Amino acid sequence: MYKMSKELYYEQKHISDIICDEEKAAAAEYSKGYMAFLDNGKTERECVSYAIELAKANGFVEYAPGMEVVPGAKFYRNNRDKALVLAVIGTEKLDRGCNIAGAHIDSPRLDLKQNPLYEDSEMALFKTHYYGGIKKYQWVTLPLALHGVVIKKDGTKVVINIGEDETDPVFVVTDLLPHLGADQNKKSLGEAFTGENLNILVGSTPVSGEGASRMKDLVLQMLNEKYGIVEEDFLSAEIEAVPAGKARYTGFDRSLITAYGHDDRSCSYAELKAIFDIDTPVKTAVCILSDKEEVGSDGVSGMQSADFEYFMEELCDAQGVKLRHCFANSFCLSADVCNAFDPNFPEVSEKRNNGKINYGIALMKYTGARGKSGSSDASPEIIAMLRRQFGEAEVVWQMAALGKVDQGGGGTIAKFMANRNIDTIDAGIPVLSMHAPFETVSVYDCYMTYKGVKAVYGIK
Ligand code: MN
Ligand code: MN
User: Fold this and answer.
1) Residue 54 belongs to a domain
2) Are residue 302 and residue 432 in the same domain, yes or no?
3) Do 100 and 121 share a structural domain?
4) Is the separation of the CB atoms in 363 and 448 below 8 Å?
């Protein structure tokens, strides 16, 4: 008689069927802190300043050369207000390696151009240049808030944050009415909306009297009154238009969160909370919140920047060890989101291997496109080590791949960490509607990613 050998099969379970009520409550509690992080950090700069605030409250100090790098010391390194690295020094010296978790705090958005303000047909508008991979049609007829900084010629910084408070006005990119959409409807999704047409409506009242650009004039007057800036100051400004509004629970059961920027603030917060919650680790724990991931991790604040080496080398020098020994013995969890299987679009995913919501932190052996191009392919030795580590720490996890082969692809900071001779694997939270103005994740997956990062910080 044939009997199914169940113990030979790999079977996955929904998180709800695995974790106890106490943990379910902990996940709900965790989500509150995460949603506050989302609401306080809608740009990389805001994430850095909020994370520093939290870090200080948790005993972290800004590292300065000459400080003692001893077990239990908690440091942060602020890279130009746009990227942040935190470290808790372990009991073992740094040449034994670190446990690193690296996420990114930049998200797709519409950046204002350097000369943004103009008037057309008695309306005042801002020119934009989109940042990261967006589906342009999603960014029209959506309330937008403006976040950013203006650095005046004398170096003083003006912080802009308008559109989030319920009493604030919002801004919008208009769209064509369907009644006149005959030609637009014939175009493909990618062609119907152009980057150059994503112009933001910012005003429509003229200043009184005669003049050629009376609506623009009024906007300039109001900006001058509120922020003390003139048009030329836009040249040295970095202002981002992001979806207005707060993070919200989703579903009757509140099991999901819909918000702007889960990619990759869901993993960023998991790392932060994890590094705040650990005791002095054996190996030094490092938390990276990087910038520019959505555009290739280039530039001075991206993960390819030498600023990371600069900070890590400072720490190594203070202990009299070599940075290259530290990196060679380190491990990095590249904490970034992946796509969640979406029943509305089953055709792009291969169900056996796609990430699913509510199945925990998703490990990705590789990312890339086509024949794994541009990917850092993690070794099975590393995966086996994590299987043990996650098992001991009771982390619910799954293995995931980004959609069907040949359907597309993506990348993370993983390869830039691996290029530094650091064993690296991707892992993160499955997201629905990734890169849309509002993305959706599961509360349990967020919590499990926090537990996963904490487990990584415990690797000996
Ligand atoms: Mn990402
Ligand atoms: Mn992304």
Assistant:
1) yes
2) yes
3) no
4) no
Ligand nearest to the CA of 103: 1
Shared-domain flag, residues 99 and 127: no
Find the ligand nearest to 264 CA: 1
Distance separating alpha carbons of residues 187 and 155, to the nearest angstrom: 46
Å from CA of 43 to ligand 2 middle: 14
Domain-terminating residue out of 243, 271, 302: 243
CATH number of the domain that residue 306 is part of: 3.40.630.10
Q: Which two tokens stand for residue 117?
A: 């303000």
pLDDT digits (tens, 9 = 90+) for 83-117: 999 999 999 999 999 999 999 999 999 999 999 99
Gap from CA of 211 to ligand 2 centroid (Å): 45
Distance 311 CA to ligand 1 centre (A): 23
| Distance between Cα 431 and ligand 2 center (Å) | 10
Do 345 and 277 share a structural domain? yes
Span from the CA of 117 to the centroid of ligand 1 (angstroms) = 31
Whether 254 maps to a domain, the answer reads: no
Per residue in 428-444, pLDDT (tens digit) is: 999 999 999 999 999 99
**Can you tell me whether residue 297 is helix, strand or coil?**
coil
Q: Domain for residue 211, yes or no?
A: yes
Q: How many domains in the chain? A: 2
Q: At 97, phi and psi to the nearest 5?
A: 100, 165
| 6-60 pLDDT, tens digit each | 889 999 999 999 999 999 999 999 999 999 999 999 999 999 999 999 999 999 9
Instruction: Based on the fold, state whether residues 269 and 350 are members of the same structural domain.
Output: yes
Domain enclosing residue 236, as ranges: 109-243
pTM: 0.97
Same domain, 273 and 219: no
Q: How far, in Å, CA of 18 to CA of 135, rounded?
A: 37
Token couple for 152: 């005046």
Please indicate, yes or no, whether residues 90 and 216 belong to a single structural domain of this protein. no
Q: Ligand 2 center to residue 183 CA distance, Å?
A: 32
pLDDT for 410 equals 87
Residue 267 CA, ligand 1 centroid: distance in Å = 9
Neighbours of ion ligand 2 (CB under 5 A): 263
* CB-CB neighbours of 5 under 10 Å: 7
Specify the DSSP element, H or E, that contains 145: strand 144-151
Q: Is residue 248 part of a domain?
A: no
d(CA 163, CA 45): 17
φ/ψ of 234, rounded to 5, equals -60, -25
Ligand nearest to the CA of 414: 1
Q: Are residues 182 and 306 in the same domain?
A: no
Q: What would the pLDDT profile of 259-301 be if each residue is shown by its tens digit? A: 999 999 999 999 999 999 999 999 999 999 999 999 999 999 9
Point out the ligand nearest to the CA of residue 435.
2
Distance 242 CA to ligand 2 centre (A): 15
